[in-house]
Structures
1.
Amino acid sequence: QSTWGELVLGIAIMLSLRSSVSRRLIHSSTRALSPCYTTFDPNTLSGKNPITLQNLVGGKWTPTTSYTNIPDPMKDGEIIVHAPETSEAELTPFIESINSCPKTGLHNPFKNVDRYVMLGEVSHKAANMLGRDADFFARAIMRVMPKSYAQALGEVKVTQQFLKNFAGDNVRFLARDFGVTGDHDGQHSTGYRWPFGPVAIIAPFNFPLEIPVLQMMGALYMGNKPVVKGTSSVSLVIEMFVRLLHACGLPTTDLDLIHCSGPRAQQLLERSNIRLTQFTGSSQVAEKLAVVTGGKVRVEDAGFDWKILGPDGANDERTLQYVAWQSDQDAYACSGQKCSAQSILFAHTNWVKAGLLDRIKKLAEQRNVNDLTVGAVLSETTQRMLSHQARLLQIPGARVLFGGKELSNHTIFKGYGALEPTAVFVPLKAMLANEADFKAATTEIFGPFQVVVEYDDSTLPLVLQACERMSHHLTAAVVSNDVLFQRKVLAHTVNGTTYAGLRARTTGAPQNHWFGPAGDPRGAGIGSPEAIKLVWSCHREIIQDVGPIPSTWKQPQQS
C-alpha cells in the first residue's frame, strides 16, 4: 500500500509540475518577446538601442545611403528608428520591379490559379503567427503610434481576424465569376474579376498595421503586385509584418516595400507603370494624387464624422451611461487620431438636460499619458490645435466645455501635439450663419478635439442642412431607436459607414463589414470581400462563341 501511495503521489506531483510548466510556457508566449523573423524588441527600443529599417525590392532586403531619424513620440529628443531615406537614384530597382509585372497581374482566373490557393494558405499561417505574436505587434505599435494597449491590441486582433477570413478557399472565392447564356448554342458570356497588375499603396500613420495589411493583402489576393509605402514615422510595424509573411511562405518577390518621403513616392508613381494607387490619409494629398495619377486612384481620405443623438433614450440611466462612454471613446481614443473619430456631436436637448455632456467631461478627464489613453498627436502641433480652438471661440456663443489646454507634465516630442481631450460648444444657428464660421466649425482636427452642438425637434432640419454642407462623408452615427427618426436622418445623409441605434458609434473599422466613404466615385473600401473586389480588381467580360454554325446559315446582305 505504501508503494502504491508513493506511486500515486509521484504521478500527482509530475502532473502538477507539467501543468505549471505549461502555464509558464503559455504565459511567456504572450509576452513581447522578439519573434524569429523580427529585428528588434519593442521593450528595449531606445536611443541607445535603435532599429535600422530596410527597403524590400525585387525579393531582397536592401539598405540605403541615407536615413531619416525618427523620434520616440513620448520622449522628446530620443531617436529610436533610422528609416531609409530612399534617394532618386535608389528608385531604379523599384521601377524595374514594378514594371516587371504585366497588366494581367501575378495571377488571374486564367493564369497561375494555384496562387489563389497559396495565398489562402499564407493567410492561414499568418493569422496563426500574428495571434501568437499579438503582444509583440501591439507593443511595437505603441512605441511609434502612442495609443493604449487595448487600442493597439484591438488593431492586431482585427488584422488577425481579417487573415482568418481569407484563409483556405476564400481567396479564390473573391475571384468568383458569373455567367449568362447567349443568343444561340455555343455562345456564353462570363464576367471575371481581373487584376490591374502593378499597384501602389500609400498608408497612414494612425493604424500602422491594420490599414496597410488589409489593403496590401487585398491587392495580393486579386492578383496584383503592390509596392507599399507606409509613413516613415511608424513604418517599422509594416516591415515586421512583411517579414512575418515571408516566414509564412509568401514569395519574397510578390511585393515591394519602400521607406521614403512623399515627394520621392510621387516620383515613383510618375516614372513607373503603376496602374492604380490606393491612398489613405488627408484630403489634400488625395486631391494631389488624383492629378498625379491621372485619376487612377482609390482614396479613403479625411472624415469630419458626425454623431446625431436622437430625442429618445436620455431618460434611461444605463443608456445615458453607455452613450457617454461611447462618445468619449469615439472622440478621444487614440488621442482622436482615427479617420472615423467623432468630430462633431449634435446632441438633442433631451440629452443635454439629462447631463450627458458632464458625463463625457468626467470620462475625458480620466484619460492620461501614463496609460496612453491620451498621448502624442503626430500630425498636429499643440499650437495649431489651440489656434483652431481660438478661431472657434470667435463664433458668437461658442465656449470651451472642457480641456482646451496643453497636457501637463509630459515629455512628448516637441514636433508633435499634446492636448487635453477638448470639446468646444458652438450654437447651431451661429455655425450656419456664414461660410467662414461653418468652415471653421467643420474643419477636421486630427487630435483629441470635437465640436458639440445642441438642437431640438424644431431645428433638426438645420442639423441635416449642416450634414449636407460637409465635404467628406466617411463615418456617422444616428443614436436613436426611434425608427422614424432614424429613417429621416438616413434618408438625408450619405456617409459611407453609418451606425444606427442607441449603441451607434462613429469609430467602427472592424473586418466584418465594409468601411469606407460614400459620395465619391474614387472612394476606397477596406476589410470586406466587396471592398477588396471594388478596389483591387476590375470587371472583364469574356464571351465564348464557339458555334456550331447552323447548316442552314446563308450569308446575309451587308449592313
Note: Confidence is low (pLDDT under 50) at residues 17-32.
2.
Amino acid sequence: AVVSTRVREAVVSTQSTGRYLEFIAQIEERKQSKAAETTNNLILADYYAFKGEFQEAAKMYKKSGNEDKAMAMFSDLRQFENAKDFLTSSDPKNIKGLIKRQAEWCKSTNDPGSAIDLYMAASAFAEAIEIAGKQKWTDKLVEIMRQLDKSFVEELRGCALHFKELGKYEFAAESFQKLGELSSLVELYIESHQWQEAFTLCEDHPEFKESVYIPYANFLAENDKFDEAQEAYYIAGKPTEAVKVLEKLTHNAVAERRFDDASYYFWKLSMAYLKLANQAQSRGSEEEVNQYLDKFQDYQHRAEMYYVYQTLHRYTEEPFTSHLPEALFNMARFLLHNLSQEIPYGVSKVSILYALAKQSKNMGAYKMARHAFDKLQQLVIPRRFQQAIDLSSITIRSKPFQDKEELLPMCSKCSTTNPLLNQMGNQCINCQQPFVHSFYAFEVLPLVEFIPEPGISDLEAVKLINQDPPTSGGKGWQETNQGDVQTMSFENTNPSRYDEDTFETRLQNWESMTSYQPVEVGVEILKRMPRSEVEVLKWGSPLRYQFYKNLMPDIILDTCDSCNRIFYADDLELQYLQKQACPFCRKSVAQPEPVPTE
C-alpha cells in the first residue's frame, strides 16, 4: 500500500509515464506471489534498479534474499567487481556462471588473453582451447593441456588438433598419450613423418608394425629411396610389395643404362623370391615353391649377365678400362655362352661380339675372333664401329684358323680340353659340369662339385669338413718311440680300409652320363678333406648347399658369404679395399654374414 502510493506519486512526477506504467503493471502482477515484506523489498530493489540507483538496488536485493539478482544486475552492467561482492553465499554454479560471463565480455571486447584465463578459472576448457587455437598461442594450449586429465577426452583431442595444425607434433603426441589413444598417436607419427618415434612405439606394440611400415615404405618410394622401401615392405610382412618395388628399380636401372645397378637389383629380386619359396615351403605349397625357384634362377642369371655386361659396355663406350685384356676376353666369352637362351633387355650383342673379337685377335684366339667378326657382319653395327670392324674382318683372314692352345679351358672334373667356342654353352663338352668362374677375372676355376651321400645333411657335411683331418692310419710321417730310440718313417704303418676310397679315386672312376651328376662322397672322405680346399655355397632353404673341391690348393680362393660368388682371394681383397664391399652383391665388409636356414 505505502510502496504503491509512493511509486504512483513518483510516476506522476516523471515524463516517462508510459514506461513507468508498464513497470507498475509488472509489480502488481508479482505482488501476490510472496510475503509482503519480501515482496516490498524486492519491488523497491527493482525500482531503484529501474531508476538507475544500482547500489541502492543491490542493498534491497540483498535484504530481500536475492543476492543472485544483484549479481546478475552488475553482470549485465559489466561491473564484475561489484558482482563478486554477492558471491559469498551464492551457489558455485553461479560463481562459474559469473566468471564465464566475464570471460565472454573479455572475448567480445577483443581481450582473448583475459578471456582464456577466466574460462580456465571457470573450468570451461573447451572455450579456452578454442580461443587459444584461434590465436595460435602454443604456450596457452600447452598450459591448458597439462591441466587436463584423461577424463577430458574432447578437450584433449581439441588440443591435439590445434597442435597438429600449428605443427607442434610433440605436444600433440603428449595429448594422445594422456588419452591413451595409441592408434591416434601412430597416425600422428605417420602424418608428421616421425618414423623413429613410430618404430619405438612398434617395439612395445607389435600390432602396429604393419600400420607403420607400409606408409613408411610408401614414403621412401615416393622419395626415390627404393632400397630402403623394399626392406620396409619386408618388415611390414608385404613381400609381394617389396618385389614390385625391386622390379620397378630394376626396369629403371636398365632403361637408364645403369647395368651395375640392374645387376644388383636382379640379385636382390632373386633373393626375394628365394624367401618367398621358403615361405611357400612352410605352407606346403609345392607348386608355388617351384614357381618361385624358377624366378630365383632366372633373376640370378640376369644379375650375372648385367654384372658382366657393365664392364664390356664401359669398355666399348669409354676410352679407358681398369680390366686386363684377359679379363675382358673371359667376360665376353662368358656372356656369349649365356646368350644362347635370351638376350636381356638393354644388352647389346654388338658390344659383346666387338669386345670378344678385338680381344681374341690381340690374344691369338684367331678362330674365335673370326667367328665373332662373322657374327658382327650379320648385325646392325653403329657407324663409329663400322670401319674398324670391316677392316678387322679382312685382316683376320690372314691369321691361322685356330686358337692358341694355352687359351683353351680345361675341365677340372674330366680333364677334357674344351674349345673357346662351346656349342653347349658354359659347361664341359664331355662331363657337362658347368664351369665355375672367378667373378672378377672370370677365369675358369679348378673346382669340382660334389654332394654328400644320402642321409648326410648339409650342416652335417659342413661340420665334418671343418673337423681336423684324421692322422692315424694314413700315409705320411709316422713317429715311433722305443725306449731311448725315436724314429720317424714315411710309410703306411696302419693300413685303413678307407685308404683307397678318396675323392681323387672317385673322380677317376667317373663315367660318362647323359646328364650332369656331381661327385658323391661319404663321411670318411668329408672328414679327410682339408677345409682350405673346399668352397661351400650356403644357399637358404629350400635350396641345398653347393660344395666344391679345389684341385689346385696353391690357388687361394675366397667366397662371398652373401651372394655365394667365388673369387681369387687377392681379387676380392682388392675390391674390399677399393669399394669396401663385394663387387657383385655390394655387401659391406662391416655387414654381418647372413644366417642360412636349414
Note: Residues 277 and 291 are 8 Å apart (CA to CA).
3.
Amino acid sequence: FAFPYGSGAMSGDGADWNKENMHTTTIITSSDTNVHVKRELDYDAYDVVCAWSNSEWKFQADSTSKHAFALSYTGEISGTISVELSCLLSPPNAIYPISRNDNWLATKATQTQTILKDNSQMPSFMDIYNASSVGWERFWNSGAFVALSDNTNNKMAFELERRVILSQYLTRVNSAGTLPPQETGYVSNSWYGKFHHEMRWWHATHFVLWQRASLLQRSDGWFTTMLPNATAYAAFQGYKGARWPKMVAPVTSPLITGKTGYDAPSVGNTTYSNSKYPLLYWTGPSGTGPLLAWQQPHVIWMAELQRLHADSENESKMVETRLMEQVVATADFMASYARSNASAAGKPRSRWLGPPLMGGEESGNVPESSYNPTFELTYWRLGLQIATEWIKRAGGTPSTEWETALSELATPSTVFYNGSEVYNINANCSGFPNNTQRTANCGAYESHPLFIGAYGMVDGSRVTPPISPLLVNNTMRLVLQQWNWDSTWGWDFPLLAFTMVRLSYDPMAVVEMLLFDTGKNTYLANGCVPGGTPCYLPANGGLLSAVAMMAGGFGAQTGPNHTGTNANWFPSDWNVKVEGFKAYP
C-alpha cells in the first residue's frame, strides 16, 4: 500500500511520489485483521479502512517510504497461502459533500460511518463480491436494450453491439456518481482531475433515454449545492445568475481541524461572496475553459429531458420542483451574458454571444474575434425557451430579461459556398478549407463539428427563428466532404449521427458514422476509446445516446410510452430487437 501526494499534471495517474513532506499518513487503529488509516493533503482528507481474513498476515510499515505499508504473511509456509482483502475509501466521518440526502448515498453514509467507528464491521471480500453480483444483475435486467448480434456474419452489427454493451458498463462504473465526472472517470486523470461541466451531457444523457434516469439524477445535486458558488463566480465576472465553467475544483467543507474552505489558496472571502459561501470553486488551468460557453444550457436541457420522460405527471412536477432553482439561475446568466453589441446598435437582433468567446469547436478562430456561433445561439434560445415554459407551468411570470434576450438575440449567420447556402461556424468564421472563404484568424474544418449539432444534438427547429433543416443538410454535405477527421474526438461521431437521423440519412450511413475508422473513434477490447486520453468516456456516452435516438426515434413528448420519429432507424436488412427506449427530444 503506498499513498502519494496529488499530481499537478494535466493527465496521468494523479500521483506525485516526490513530495513526501507535503502530506501525512497516520494509522488511527489497527488489529490482527484490520487497520484504519487517516490521510491529509493540504485542505483535503480521507480515511482508508482495510480488513483481511487471516491474522497470520500483518500490516506493517514499509521501509521505502513513510507513506508505504505492506500486508505480509508471517506464518509457516506449507501448501497454498491465500488471504481475502477488502478496503474502504471515505471522506472524514463519511460526510459526503454533495447529495448527501439522496437515499442511496444516505444509506451508504450510514454503513460507512458504522465501519469507521468499528473497523471489524468491514464487509468481507465475499460480501462485496456477492453484493456486486446482485447489483450488476439488477442493472443488466433494467432499462432499455437493443440486440444486434443475431445478424450472422454481420461484422458491423456485431461491432456496434460490442461497443454498446461495453459502453453501458464503462459509463455505469465511471459516470454515475454524485459529481460531474472528469472525461476519463476513474481510469486516469484528465484536465487536471477536475469535475467536468462541459462533458456531463455526453457522459450521462443516455441514462434517461435508456430508462436509467436515477443514475443521471445522482449528480443533479451538485448543481444545487454549488449554486451559491456559481452565482458568486458569475458576479465576479459581471453577470447575473449562475455560470458553470468547463471544469472546476471545489472546496466543500472544513475537512481538517483549524482549516476551512476560506483558507484555501485562490478561494477566500471575496467581494462577490456572501456571508455563508466563499468562492468555493474556480476554473481549472486551461487555455480554453474560461471563455467556453456552450456547456451552459446543459443544465436546463438535461432537466427538461428528465421532465419529459418522468413516469407520471406527478413525477414530472417533482422534477420541476427539484430542479427549478438551478434552471432559473442558469437562465438568468444566459440572458445576462447575451449583451447588446455596439456594432449592432439600432439593428434588430443586436444581442451577441461574444466576443470574446471560445466556440465549442475549439478551433476555427481565436476567442478575441469569435462571436455568435451557430450552435451556441441555437442552444441559448432553446434553453431560455425551456426555462420560460417551466416558469409558466409553475404559474409564474417569466423574467423580462429572458424575453428581451430571446427577442433580441442574433441569428446564426450563413454563407454561400459552391452555390449552396450553409451555416457558418460562427459569424466571423465559415471554416472552409478554401482560404479565400475564410476570415482572418479563422481555422479550417477541424476538431469538433459542433455547429452541425444545431439540428441534431438539439432540435433547432423548435426555436424562433428556427434552424433550417435544408441549410443544415447543405452544411452536412460539406462537413462530410471536407472535415479533417484526424482532428476529431470520440463524441464527434455521435454528434454527426444525431443530425443524420434527424435528416433521415440512410440508416447504414448513420452506422458507418458511428463506426468511422479513425484513431479517436477506436474502441479497445475493454471498450475504452484512446487518443488524447486512455479512456475517453464522452465517446461511450455519446454512442449510447445516438443508439437511443436510432432505437426510440426523436421528437419526445411527455409521457412514459411516447415513440419518436424515425424509431428503429437501423439498416432494413438487419435483425434488430429493441425495447424500452425513450424518444430523444
Note: The radius of gyration is 25 Å.
4.
Amino acid sequence: MGGDVLVTILIIGAPKKWPEGTEISRGSHDMYTPATRPLWLSNGILYNEDHCNRYNHTLEVKQLQGPDFWPWQIERCNKFPPDTAKSGQRRNCFMGAHRENCTWYKLRWLLQHLVAKTAEYILFIDCDAIILTRPNRDTVSEMIATLNRDQIDMMVADEDWQMKPSTVGATNTGVILVRNTAWSRYFLENIVALQENRTCGSNEQTCFRALLGRGWGGAKEHIKIYSGFIWNRHPTRPAENWNTASDARIVHFMGAAKPAMRFIDVPENGACRDQLCLNVDQCAKQLTERPGRGNGLKFAIALTHDLHRAPGDRFRDVAVLRSVVAAAKTVGADAVLLVPNDQVAEHALTSEERTMLESHGFKVVKVGWMVPPHLHTSMPNSAQCARKKYLLLHVLGMEEYAAVIAIDGNVAIVGDAKAALQCAAQRKLLTVQSTASPLSGGFLAVAPQKGLVQAALAFLADTELKNQSSWSGAHANGQFTSAQCSAGMLWALFHEEEYAQQARAAFEKAGVQPPVVHELDRCLWGRQSRDDVGCSASCDKVRFAHPAACPSKVT
C-alpha cells in the first residue's frame, strides 16, 4: 500500500454546469484557490496540517468539481418553471440536490482510495472539523489503535453531545476512519450505489445510520460507534467550553458554527490548549468593523506593585514603565498603577514616588486589600504565595474601563496592544501560558466587572483546595509555577475542570456571567527570555515580552 495512514479533507465546488433556467449566484459555489479560501476554511486546514506535520501523517487536501446531477434529480427539479425575480424554486431544488451529492461524494472518495490502496488506514474528516493537538497526544494514531484494539474495520462517532437519548448512537459521518479491507470496500461499494437507486434516504448520513442500524452486510460486527463528545464534538453544545474538555480529540464546527473558525490561530510553537489560540486581530475586527460599536470606549494598561521594599529603588525598571506609558498613549488608553493604600502597604507610597510616576504618565490607584478577606482555611498562606499576587484580582473590577490589560513589572510592551483591548472589550478574558505554567501572571486582558471580583472572592472563600494548598489540581503537568498564587487561582476559576462546579457556584453567588475565556499564543503575547528556541516568530511579530526576549524592541 502507499503508506500506513492518509488523512483526507475534501472540498467540493460547484458542478461544471448548472441546468438552464436556474439562477445561481456566484460566490460560495465557485471553486476556491488557496488564496480565495474563506478564513474559516484556511484556519481549519492549517490546524490539521499542524497536527499531521507534528506526528508525520500524510494530509491530503483535495478540491474537486461538484458531481453531475443524477437523471432523477434533473427530472425532479425540472418540474419547477424557470426562475424569476420572485421565484427561485427551481434554483432551490438544484441547490438542495447539489448539497446531497456533496455529502455522498465523501463515501465515493473513500472508496476510490480503498480501491487504489493508497494507504492501510484512511481518515476522512469534513473540512470544518479540526484534529486537536493535545500535549504529546497523537490523535490519529490513537484512533488507529482504538480501531485495532476493537478489531473492527470502520470507526465513526455519534452525536451524544446533543444530550438527547435519540442522538446516542446516531452516527455523524463528518469523521470516518476506515481500514482498507475487503469488507470496507464491499460496504462502501454497496452504499454509494444506493444513491443512484434512490433507495436509502436523501443524504449519506441518513443512509449510513439506517444500514448500520439494520446490521446490513454484517455492519454491526465491522463498524463501531464511539462517543461524539470525544471523536466528533460540536463546539458549542453542550454549553461547557469544549476547549477545556480534556477528553475531546476532534471538534466539528458543523453548520452555523463555521464562523467561529475565523478566530482560531495556529501558534508560533507557543502552546495553547489544543493548539487553538485565539486570533486577536480577527477578534478585534468584530468590534471595529461594526459602526459605532468601538466608539468612545475607555481602555487601560495596568501594572501592580506591592510596595514591599522600602522607598529608594523599587521603581528602578524604567524601561518597563516607559513601555507601558508609550503603549497606552499609542492606543489612547490610561496607564494605571495599582498599589495598596497607606493602611495596607508595608511601606506606603511616598509623595516623591507618586510625583515621579505621574510625571511618567501613570494614574496611581490605591486599593484596600492585598490578601482577599475571608479566605478558606485551605488557601495558601503568605509563606507559600507572595501577597502581591492577589493584587491582580483588582483589575477584574476596574469597570470604568471597557477593557484592561494587566502585566507584570517584568513584562515589556513591544508591539501594538490595541487589538487585545478591542477583543477583550467583547466580554472576553484573554490569557497566555508560560513555559512553566498553564496560565501566566505576566499578561491578562479582561472586560472588567465588579461582579468578577465578587465571584473571585466567593471562589476563594468557599473552595477547599484539593492538592495541599495548591491550585495545580489534576493539571497534566502536575505542580506548576505560581500554582499557589493568583495565576493558579485564575486557572482554576476560568479553566480547570476539577473546580468547574465551585466556579459556577461562585459566579451564581456574585450574580454575574463568566467571561468567554481564550488563550493567546505565548510566543507573541508573553514571550520569555528562554523561549528563543521554542518560539519561531521573529520579534517583529511579538506584542508582549520579557525584556531579555526581544531586547532590541525595549527602549
Note: The first strand starts at residue 5 and ends at 15.
